[in-house]
Structure formats: C-alpha cells, structure tokens
Records
---
Amino acid sequence: MISEMNFLGRIIYILQSYGVSYLTGAGTTLLIALVSTVIGCLIGFAVGVIQTIPVREGNERTPGVYFLKLCQMILHAYVELFRGTPMIVQAVFIYYGLAQIWGIQLGMWQAAFLVVSVNTGAYMAESVRGGIISIDSGQMEGAKSIGMNHFQAMISVILPQAFRNILPQIGNNLIINIKDTSVLSVISIVDLFFVHKSVSGALYTYFESASIVMLIYLTMTVTVSRLLRLLEKYLDGSENYELADCMDIGNQMHKKGA
Amino acid sequence: MEKILELSHLGKSFGNHVVLRDINFSVKKGDVISVIGASGSGKSTMLRCINLLETPTSGEILFHDTNILNKENDIPAYRSKVGMVFQSFNLFSNMSVLDNCIVGQVKVLKKNKEDARQKAMQFLTKVGMEPYIHAKPRQLSGGQKQRVAIARALAMEPEVLLFDEPTSALDPLMVGEVLNVMKTLASEGLTMIVVTHEMSFARDVSNHVVYMDDGFIVEEGAPSQLFSEPKEEKTKAFLATILAEK
Ligand SMILES: Nc1ncnc2c1ncn2[C@@H]1O[C@H](COP(=O)(O)OP(=O)(O)OP(=O)(O)O)[C@@H](O)[C@H]1O
Ligand SMILES: [Mg+2]
C-alpha cells in the first residue's frame, strides 16, 4: 500500500501511475501559456500603436481625430479593466457569467485562450506603449525626413527597437502565464495544477504530488527564460562587423544580373 | 535659375514663445545657402519648418509654387524630395548601414530592392563608407555616422538637402571628413541649405549666406559681401564675436 512506502517510493509510484497525466497537464499549461502570450503580444502591439498615434498640429478638431480619441479611451478602459481584476474572476465571468446573462456559452478552451490572451494583451499594451515612447524621437524624425509616414516608420524603425527593448517583459509575461494558467482549473481546464489536485485528492499524497508539479513548473519556466535569453542575444547581433572588401562590393553590385 | 523653394512671411511660435517672426527667402536650383546666427535665433526651427517636422503657425512655404501647408498636400511625398541631415545623425539603430540607405527607397519610393541596393552603394561609395555596409550605427564613429546619414538622404535623390549643424556633434578631427563630403556635393550642383557654425564653409563653399537673429533674417547676400562688408550693425557684431572665437 502507498502509505507504507517511503518518499521516493511514493514518487515513483505516482509517476508510474499518473506520469502521462502530469505530462499531458503540463502540455496543456504550456500550450495555453504560449499561444495566449503570442496572441496577447499581438493585441498589446496593436493597442500600444493606436495609443501612440500623434495628432498633427492644427488637426485637433477633425472627425478622424475625435474617432481616434474615442478608440483610445475605449482601449484605455480595456487595459484598466483587465489589469485591475484577478484573472480567476475574469475566467469565471467569461465562462459562467456570460452564459448566465446573455446565453453566450463559450467552450472551456475558447474561454481559456480568450481570458489569458486578453489579460496578457492588457499588460503588454502598457509595455509596448512605454517601449514606443522610450525610443529616441530622432528615430522617428529620421524616418519622417526620408518621407516615411507614421505607420511605415513604426513598422520599419520604431517597433523593431521597441520589441527588442521589451523582450524581457514579454518573457516575464510568458513565465507568469505558465504559472497563472493554474487558475483555469476553475473552468475545468485539465492543466498541470488540475492533474495535481486530482492525483493528490485520490491518493492523499499532497507533498509528493506538489513536489513533482513544482519541479515541472520550474523546468518549464527556466527553459523558457533560457530560450528568451538566446533570442535576445540573436537579436542583438554580433559585436563585430565584417568590413566589406572590394570583391564583396563587386558581388553586391553584380547580383542584379543574377 | 529655376526657383525651387520659397518661404513667405513664415512664422512659428511655441505657445506664446515666438521663435520665427517673419521669414522670407527663396532657394534656386543649385543654391548652396548657409544659415548663420547666434544660438536660439531660430535656425533649427526654420529648417524643421521647411521639412514640416514643425508646423509653421503663419506664412507659406512654396515648393515649385505650390503651398505645401495646404491640408491636401501629401507631406511624406514632399519630405522625400526635401532631405534632412541632423546634428544627431538619427540613423536607424536597428538596421545596418546599407539597410539605412535602402529602406526609404523601398518603402517610400517603391523601388525594387536590387535597384535600391545599387543606388545605396553608389552614394555610400561617394561618402567613402562602402566598406562599412554591414556595420550597425552604434559601431561607427560620429563622422562615419554623419557620412552614412548624408548617403541615406542622397539615396532618396532629393531636390534640396537640409543640414542642421551637421558637424557640431563631432570631434574636431572628424569635422573635416564631413565638410569634404559636403563640399563635393556643393560642387556637383546639389541644392543645399546648411545651418552651420563653420564660417569657413559659409564663406568658401556657399553662394548665399543668411544671417538670422531673434526669429528674423537680419541680412543676406553673397558671402564675399556679407563677410567683408556687412550692412547691418547686428551682423557686424555677430561676425566680430564669432571670428574672435576662432
Ligand atoms: N519644441 C520646442 N518647444 C518650445 N520651444 C522651442 C522648441 N524648439 C525650439 N524652441 C525654442 O525656440 C528657440 C529657437 O530654437 P532653435 O533650436 O531654432 O535655435 P537655433 O538657432 O537652432 O540655436 P542653436 O544654434 O543653439 O541650435 C529657442 O529659444 C528654443 O528654446
Ligand atoms: Mg539649432
């Protein structure tokens, strides 16, 4: 019987019986965290870009500008709402609440991706906005001076730099999401934490199961942060550059014919 | 010669701080105009107004006789014809030297990448920066950055190129390399407006000098006239101080 085993024995027993469940749970956790972080970043970049659209002097009273201001206000409210409430409550609200009031019954997967993405989007929106306004204004002026419009300058010049600067925050969000998807067990998502609750509930092995689960979470988060470091290094490029010799220049010039 | 640009009663204030009061002057094709004047006299503001980085509060800017301050005017298209070189270079720090000179041609002029690369190489070679095409701006010296910035502006093949104190942020040793590039461009007939503290450039390279003070153009004329026999007292005083500094 399991109560007669020592700690190690119990761990081995749990892994033999439920190892696959833990891994599936971890897979679910990782899937929701990764996909939602990516979608959340896209939301965050879209919101951050809209929040920083400048109004040209003299254009303050045009319909277009009023519309822009309205959008910015709505987006601001969105950011405040999702940053200012706990994700567990948002999940319950969207999954159970919407169904009760408006009869909108989302699948639990849809609800899970929606809640985590929209939540991440709200945090990222602020990071992106900060990232954009921290880029030296000379970069935008340089882009404008060669005739780029605001969005061309954003895409080619400002956002790539902002992205690099906020990459640590994106990584942070991903790590937080890996951990915080555990609250989705309230809407019956069978993630890693849900598996833990089932296993420990069935076997009364809270300590052992929790140890296993913590180790899995830690492995995932440490791996992710390592990978992001590598991405940062890659984006920074080499410290050195190759001097182009004449041959190289010749080749560059001749490529057209090829 | 054909008139390219004309400023007419141009004014600019920031809030209630009036920086440009009543600026009138015109630029003909091939002109090399130096703008001189004390710090705070409004030289940069005037240049930034010409490129619409600042919106003038009154007056007109005529580009080939069209007022570019009209609301319908396509500002980016206009800017692509009026290049600007900044004191602080403003190279795109996320791009290599070569890409800095390509991106505008591809995105704004819609050229294909290969043509853009050729043009970029042509101008990078002209400023002597062709060995550094793979470098990032942060890996270059100030003088090198400024030469790339000039190549980036030239690659758009603008009709007028504006320079805002292009050598002021440089070590004395690097000033020469940038001024030499500018001299070459001037001798090849590029139309230029240069805000500068380099009196030798104003005197020897430009064909017209504008002296500004407190938001006005106090005096303008050929360099030989303005430097050797200035008409206005203010001009005399300014030249006396600045030449004494040297
Ligand atoms: N964005 C701004 N907001 C408010 N005031 C400004 C702004 N830009 C410039 N000014 C003011 O306008 C005046 C003229 O500035 P400007 O930069 O045009 O002078 P300048 O002749 O180029 O001087 P310098 O030789 O030091 O570059 C200064 O008093 C400056 O404080
Ligand atoms: Mg200035």
---
Amino acid sequence: MSSDPHLVEFFLRQGDNALVLGHRLSEWCGMGPALEEDIALTNTALDLIGQSKLWLAHAAEIEGADRSADDLAFLRDAYDFRNVLLLEVPNADYGRTMLREFFFDAFQLPWLKALTDSTDDRVAEVAAKSAKEAAYHLERSAETVIALGDGTDESHAKMMAALDYLWPYVGEMMVDDDVDHAMAEAGVAPLPSAMRPAWDDTVNATFREAQLPRPDTKFAHAGGRNGFRHTEHLGHMLAQMQVLQRSHPGATW
Amino acid sequence: MYAQMIKSEATQEDTEKLAAFQARIDAGQKIEPKDWMPEGYRKTLIRQIGQHAHSEIVGQLPEGNWITRAPSLERKANLLAKVQDEAGHGLYLYCAAETLGVSRDELTEMLLDGRMKYSSIFNYPTLTWADMGAVGWLVDGAAIMNQVPLQRTSYGPYARAMVRICKEESFHQRQGYHLLMHMMKGTKEQRRMCQDAMNRMWYPALMMFGPSDKDSVHSEQSMRWKIKMNTNDELRQKFVDETVPQAKYLGLEIPDENLRWNDERGHYDFSEPDWSEFFDVIKGNGPCNVDRIAARQKAWDDGAWVREAMLAHADKKAARRAAGELKNVA
Ligand SMILES: [Fe+2]
Ligand SMILES: [Fe+2]
Ligand SMILES: [Fe+2]
C-alpha cells in the first residue's frame, strides 16, 4: 500500500481546520451585526470551505480507500475529525467569533506561507492559493478585534470574556506530535511550534492596539488534532452538517 | 388611502414642474437624486425600494435555514454564495433608497416595527433540501420577472441597482433549477421532496406578483411614473407560461387542475392563488411572519454593541490622529 498514514493525517488536519471553522462562520450568514460584516464573514466562510475541499480531496486520494472529499466531510464520526478544538467551540457572540478567527488566522498565515516551500507539490499548491486568502482574513479579523477591544466599555468587556474563554484553546495549534515530526523530517511542513514567534508578534501587536491584556496562563487543552478527545460541541455540529448524507445513504445531491 | 394622499399633495405642487417632470419620464430620461421630484414619487419609491431591500434581507433567512445542513461541500458553497448575493442586493437597494433621503437604519427600524413590509413569499418555511432548488427556480424566477422591466425604471439609482441584481438573480434561478434536476434523477425520496416543494411553493410564487390588477391600489400612478412597468396580471401570466414547460421537463406536477394551454389566448389558463391567504400573510398571519421578524430583530439587537463599538473606535482613531497631527505642528 502506497498510502502514508502520517501524510493522510496531515492533510486531514488541514482540511478539517478549514471545514470546521468555515462551518462555524457559515452559521452567521444572514445574522451578522451589519450587512457589510455579514458579507465579509460569508466571504471568509466561502474561502475556508473551498480550501477544505482541496485538502480533503488530497487526503481521500492519498488514503486510497475510494472515498471522496464529501465522504470525509459528511460521513466521518467526531473521533475521526482532526481539527483543533479552538475551531469547533460555538460562536457565541460576534466578539468571540472574531477573536477565535483572529487567533487562527495569526497562525494560519505564517503556516501557509511556510507550506508553500513544501517538498510535497500538493501541499505547496493548496498553501499558495490559501495563503492569499489567509492574508486578507487576518487583516480583517485583526482590525475587528482592535475595533471591538478598543471601542466601548461594553465591547471591551465582551472581548475580555471571549479572551478568557478562548485562550486555553490556542496552545493546541502550536504543540508538536509524531505526525508533525514525521512531516518535518520529510520536508512536507515545518513544526507547528515554529510558528510561535510569528503568532506571538501578531497577537501582541494587535492586543496592544485593542487594549487587551495577554493572559499569562500557558495552559492548553488538547485532543482535537489527534481526535482523542473533541469537545461535546463537535458532535452537535456534525449531527446538523451530516444529516442529509446520513439519512439518505448513497444518494447524491 | 395612499393614492389619495399622493393626489392631494400633487395638487399643491407647482403644476408646471409636474408637467416638466412627467415629460422627462415620458421621454425616457432618468431622474437622478439631485433632480426635483414630486413628494409622491419620492415616497412611492422609498416604499418600493425599501420593501425590495427588506425582501432581500429577510429572504436570506429561509435559505440560510439550510446552510448548515447542505449535503455536499459544493452545495454548501453555492448556497452560502447565493445567500451572500442576497445580502449584497439588500445593500445596493438600501444605498439606492438612501439617495432619496432615508437612512438604512431608519428603514430597518420601519421593517422591525412593522411599518414597512417585505415580500410575502419569505413568510413561508423551507422544509427540505429540495426547497433550495424550488426557491431558486420559482422565487428567484418570479423575482426576475418582476425586476427585469425595472432595469428601465425612471429613477436612475434604482434602475442601475436592478441591472446588477438581475444578472445574479438569473444565475440563482438556473442554479435552483439544476439542483432540482439532479434530485429528480435521484432516489424516490429525493423526487418526493421535489414534488412536495412544488406543491407548497407554487401558489405563494404566483402571489409574488401581487393581487389581481382590479384589486391593486398603487398601479396607475406608478405606471405613469415608470416606477412600475407592467401590471401584476401580465407578469403572472408570463411567469406561468415560462414555468409550465420547465416543470414538465423536470417531471414535476403543478398543483392546479385547471392548468391547460388556451390556444385562443396563446397562454396557459391557470387557477388564481387563494387571495384570502395572501392578505392573511400580509397582515402577519403567514406561517413564518413572527419568526422572520424575530430573527431580524435578534440580529439587529445582538449586533448593536458591535456597531456602536466600531463607530466608537473609528471616532477614537480619528481623534488620536488629529491629536498626533497637532503635536507634529507644535
Ligand atoms: Fe436578490
Ligand atoms: Fe430580489
Ligand atoms: Fe436571488
């Protein structure tokens, strides 16, 4: 068998991050705080769902089990998803939604840029396309975090609450495991931990302008990237997302 | 009552100005925001464009209902893009209305407190995935029928908004049709969903053209002003004539025993929708009126702190910049 389980795992992680965050953002469509925000948020959701399609199609192909990107998205159970926990927790309010997106974008931009040098052409190609989109996402999410952190007393308080909730989830993005080491050795990807300095710089600079303090706790939840222990929220998301595929086996849409 | 109001105001306006205004319209010229216009024209346009804008925004909800359940990555992206287009349409139309001196926020308040309406079609629920096809095909289809003539409407900003919007609406219609075509080739359950959607949507779609000409209040003056280009019944007939063969091609049955081709008229004969249901829905008693407005109200209320914060931040930034510039000067 030519399938490389570490490589499949790597592609799934990329695809599931994009899919799960894209899905969460899509929940806002039609409900945004202003038309312009609604439209911009939907743009980001569309970019991410487009990216997930590319990553998952490669994952399916490398896996070689005759599954499609849609099969992976709509027919896997929660423990087979490989997204970080940060991206599956509920949107709550607009502040938490944008702060979560910002934390991810701040990782994703340097990450995708680094992946454009991958020894795997498929990785380099998807990363090149996605990095352009990620640059725009980061610009917008950082701007929004600054506006909401700096805006009013009320908005500042909401951003503080969002920060308290989300902070324990950010660390998982930058912890290395066996898959990461295998990818680094093969030249497919750098270690996620290598993104730490760039991520810190972006977060620190944005937080200064947003008047938000950087929490000093380093505690990090884990369990999403390896599927060992997702949050309770993912199951509900999948129950909704997968309902048609699950209730009409074999049908195409 | 409204028609009367227009008349009494119009008599107070300078008759010469009115005649010149009408002559420009008759000559096919566009009226632009800075031009003089009768109050009645302005009010009628605000009402019409505002209602159209609200319809786009409320219209996001029935389709938004299925975004998180879309059955493939591609369908999910298509539906997201479609609902986003509708938000864009709302935005162009609010901008067109703003050129008449009413702000987006004012219009939104009027929608939320019931002073302004939106298309009654969006007070019907979307119950299966086939509704995403039926809405695109029938609802966007009927909207196009209404809107294509408005590309030639007398008010410039409205006509220009309509040109952009119509292009996207016809894309939506095709996409909806193809979605149904795919499902009709699928399983028995999928075909059942399609027919069920047809059964529920047909008459509400016919209602989108408004009551029969004999019962329509605003028509005459609006037609003279070229705010309205065709009568409700003309457009409804055109819609039926175009839709019947499409339904046949899909293999869907139209829920109307009286539907048949009339050689003499060169049109299909068809049953009128139940107009008492239409007036019930307009009065607020449609299946989803309460939920739709509640959803808009919630989005508006939940978003208030965000809009306020963004304004406050923009002010602070401007103040800091001004202070910085002062320091540089000193
Ligand atoms: Fe539209
Ligand atoms: Fe429309
Ligand atoms: Fe549309």
